[in-house]
Design a protein that fits this description.
alpha/beta, TIM Barrel, globular, 14 strands, about 375 residues, about 40% helix, binds flavin mononucleotide, four-stranded antiparallel sheet, eight-stranded parallel sheet
Length: about 375
């Protein structure tokens, strides 16, 4: 029996849940026989065909005692584990991710116009490191198509808030990037609970050059009344002083918060952005760098290397209000939220904390 199934049965969940976790894990192992992007596409198609309808729902509710968190502008979440951007880029199956138990979803990155992204292969597994390298390059169906898909879903944000991660088209020069971000936001104005400005993907040439205080100021001037709905997603590869200068600008201008962090740029064994375990330390360090600037005043969501309940603890102790995962879902399968919640409950118990909310920022108080 693998780790996921073991931890679920250890929590004395109904045997159908253990069976479902085992099936989910076995299915994930089978998908791993395929090239990485093909596995993703097959998995998404199965979800679109209602795969989860044939399996018992993950038993999330009994695992959420003491897990409620409040993320300003996003909502009161049943627990702190959300889906990171990039998994359901085109809003094909957000309902399936809600059913897996994620407490919030981020779709995208969506670009204003459709674009194919980089040539394949562009997604690679590094199983020994529990990591992925991707250079997808914002493959997007484009804002109008994705928005139409969401409109038809008539999404209830009060159940599972859904945000849109906004990008720029590859062909758009950096001095017109703000127009692209605004176009995506305007298209999703009535459809998204929150927005994320993505200036941190390593796979769109020049995108990370936008991560400067002056760009943040220009963006704030243009975003105007939508500012309290906008989060900025940052990369983990900046110098500390550079990173902190951007944090100061973001806090000063009234953005809703920051998402820390995107993938870490690598050139070996493939060129792209690395996610998963090797990203945990650098992206967690960025939370500390940010906290020393805003002292808890700027809301933070953590993403980067969260593969266990202990990882969630470390992110929240360093000031994150919630976390988002991507790589953990690839390696641990569709019952990963239940597994992480069981581990997080153990972490709380170990530390004598009764409510996950009390973990937030505890590292700075110890
Ligand atoms: C294949 C892949 C595609 C991604 N696409 C996006 C994207 O379109 N926009 C974005 O902001 N982040 C994207 N990400 C980054 C994730 O949202 C997340 O920040 C990162 O993977 C770190 O989390 P993890 O270690 O849990 O995977 C992508 C990650 C992967 C692995």
């Amino acid at each position: 029996m693998d780790e996921t199934a073991k931890s679920l049965s250890a929590a004395h969940l109904p045997s159908r849940a253990s069976l479902a976790a085992w099936l989910g894990t076995a299915g994930t192992a089978l998908l791993r026989l395929l090239p990485a992007e093909m596995a993703h596409d097959v998995g998404m198609s199965l979800l679109a065909r209602g795969l989860l309808d044939y399996l018992p729902a993950p038993f999330i509710e009994p695992l959420t005692a003491g897990m409620r968190v409040n993320v300003p502008g996003i909502g009161e979440l049943a627990h702190p584990i959300g889906l990171a951007a990039g998994f359901d880029k085109h809003a094909r199956v957000p309902g399936a991710f809600a059913r897996m138990g994620f407490s919030m979803l981020e779709i995208g990155t969506v670009t204003p116009r459709p674009q194919p992204g980089n040539p394949k292969p562009r997604l690679f597994r590094q199983p020994e490191q529990r990591a992925l390298i991707n250079r997808m390059g914002f493959n997007s169906d484009g804002a109008a198509t994705v928005a139409e898909r969401l409109r038809r879903l008539n999404w209830h944000h009060d159940r599972v808030p859904l945000g849109v991660n906004c990008g720029k088209n590859k062909a758009t020069p950096n001095d017109r990037a703000i127009d692209d971000f605004l176009q995506v936001m305007t298209t999703f104005d009535q459809l998204a609970q929150y927005f994320v400005v993505n200036i941190s993907s390593p796979n769109t040439p020049g995108l990370r050059d936008l991560a400067t205080p002056s760009f943040i100021h220009s963006l704030a001037d243009e975003v105007g009344v939508m500012l309290p709905r906008v989060w900025v997603k940052l990369d983990p590869d900046m110098e500390r002083s550079e990173f902190q200068a951007i944090i100061a600008a973001i806090a000063h201008r009234g953005f809703r918060g920051i998402i820390v962090s995107n993938t870490h740029r690598v050139t070996f064994p493939e060129v792209g952005g690395q996610s998963g375990h090797p990203l945990m330390a650098p992206s967690t360090a960025c939370l500390e760098w940010a906290h020393s600037v805003h002292r808890g005043e700027l809301p933070m969501i953590a993403t980067g290397g969260v593969l266990s309940g202990a990882d969630i603890y470390h992110k929240m102790a360093r000031g994150a209000l919630a976390v988002q995962i991507y790589t953990a879902l690839v390696y641990q399968g569709p019952w990963v939220v239940s597994k992480l919640l069981i581990e997080l409950a153990a972490e709380l118990q170990l530390r004598g904390i009764s409510h996950v909310q009390d973990m937030i920022g505890s590292y700075y108080r110890e």
